[in-house]
Amino acid sequence: MKAIYILLFYVLSSASCLKAGDSISLYIFLLDDCPICIQYTSTINDLHNEYGSQVSFVGYFPNFSSKKSKIDTFKNKYNLDFPLYTDYYKTQAKKYNAQVTPEVILYNNTKNVIIYQGRIDNKFYKLGRRRNVVTEHNLKEAILNTLNNQPVEQPFVEPIGCFINYSDNFSTKTKNDKF
After folding, report:
1. Does 77 map to a domain?
2. DSSP string covering 43-83, please?
3. Are 29 and 62 in contact, with CB atoms under 8 Å apart?
4. How far apart are alpha carbons 67 and 74 in whole angstroms?
5. What pLDDT, on a 0 to 100 scale, did the predictor assign at position 15?
6. pLDDT surpasses 90 at 39
7. pTM of the predicted model, to two decimals?
8. Is 28 inside a domain boundary?
């Protein structure tokens, strides 16, 4: 099944060359108490500072425990300067088939196409295990290739992180849920 996803992402990304006026978004799935998400906040900030004028950054918290106050605390503590939303009922996580936090989706809104999905870089090679030196900057390369109208060589790279709980049985939206 993973091979089908990879093939689908490759076909879609190579057919999704950026054209003038295309709207590109980066959706970042986060969890306020996930140690891996916390480790990536400075990298996310660096990417936002560098590409935030060309790519719209949006963070989603796909769980019921991340209330607005906890998300605001996370945003302030780690100086995230882009919108962060609750995704209590995992509407956005399901839409993009996000499985872990942090997981990123680089998306062409104009063409409704996922350009890249997966990890930010190879800092973590499995849960609780990280490299001393990051050698692959998957998300940054995907952003650069997209902005330079080049195909993304690896449109899907398996993310490492805290699993999104899809079995919590919440099914009714509240006024605090943005979606």
Report:
1. yes
2. HHHHHHHHHTTTSEEEEEE-SSS--HHHHHHHHHHTT--S-
3. yes
4. 11
5. 44
6. yes
7. 0.84
8. yes
